[in-house]
Amino acid sequence: MTAPELAADHPEGFGRMYRRSLNDPATVPSITTVIAQQALDLDGWRSYMAAKHVADHPELRSALERPAQLRQLVRSAVDASTVYARSAAERGDRVHAFAEQLALRALDLPHSLDAARERLREHGEEGFAASVESWWSAFGVEPIAAELTVWNHELGYAGTLDLVARINGRTCLIDYKTKGTTRDGRVKQLDDKVAMQLVAGMKAQESLVDPAAGEWEPWAHGEDPLLIAVAVGETEAAAVRVNPEVRRSNWLTFCQLRRVWAARVESAAAGRALLPLAPPPSAQTALVPAPASSAAEA
What is the DSSP track for 101-170? Predict the structure, then answer.
């Protein structure tokens, strides 16, 4: 099961953290927080989004003749990538909620699938729901658990798997990624880092049973499940599997990134990296000129 209330932002800004129960403090970082320690160059994308914001703005023509209005338009373009990223994240949340409710219905558990579909419709995103359902039907998905919160004690991290299911008799760990659509109407390709996310989920040692009581159970889904990532777009859903040959390298990289996160937290707790430094007293004395000798002393 999942319990969103077990996750919270780190008080010092070091990503998302998980706790063992509703009464415990958060102690370990999330899988996505660990992966985020990897350098990611977004300068080109941010520049593109800013330029696109200006080029597509309905007031651009009139702003060209009004310097003050043009400066205001440019300032708003600076935040275009942030606004777009927030909007995409909110859309992703709605699509994930729909996929979760679809699984709960298939498991004969309480669900709100109709409400989740309605939220997508209100935002003009019905196509994403159709894509999820089409993928579900084509692959004959038999859900085992939806939004399963997992924990690894040995390395110290936690996370949530979108779906654990059987497909063609094989246990699968599944992650949904909401993606845009290309000009030819195909869903955009997934980033390779989704492989690391699924490998970290596969390395779980426990899964959540009861968040209030802090009850967990040993990982019950084997050491060799099929790892599947599903790109969900408005026109289609495209599934890929993680190459078994890259699992080890992805796990080793994840372990290193976990250490990077810990080092950053430790460094921040130690205080400022650079401290002011004054010249030593002896150096200051040497800089003071000796008093001139008086005539009497001479």
Answer: HHHHHHTT----HHHHHHHHHHTT-HHHHHHHHHHHHHHT-EEEEEEEEEEETTTTEEEEEEEEEEETTE
With a CB cutoff of 8 Å and minimum separation 6, the contacts of 207 are 145, 148, 149, 150, 151, 216, 217, 219, 220
Question: What is the rounded CA–CA span in Å between residue 203 and residue 222?
Answer: 9
pTM, 2 dp = 0.81
Which regions in the chain score pLDDT beneath 70? 1-3, 40-81, 283-298
> What distance in Å separates the CA atoms of residue 17 and residue 48, rounded to the nearest whole number?
32
Yes or no: domain 4-269 corresponds to CATH 2.60.120: no
Q: Is the CB of residue 148 less than 8 Å from the CB of residue 219?
A: no
Q: pLDDT tens across 39-52, in order?
A: 755 455 555 555 55
> How many angstroms separate the Cα of 99 from the Cα of each of 9, 33, 58, 95, 166?
25, 23, 36, 6, 16
CA 163 – CA 179 distance, rounded (Å): 18
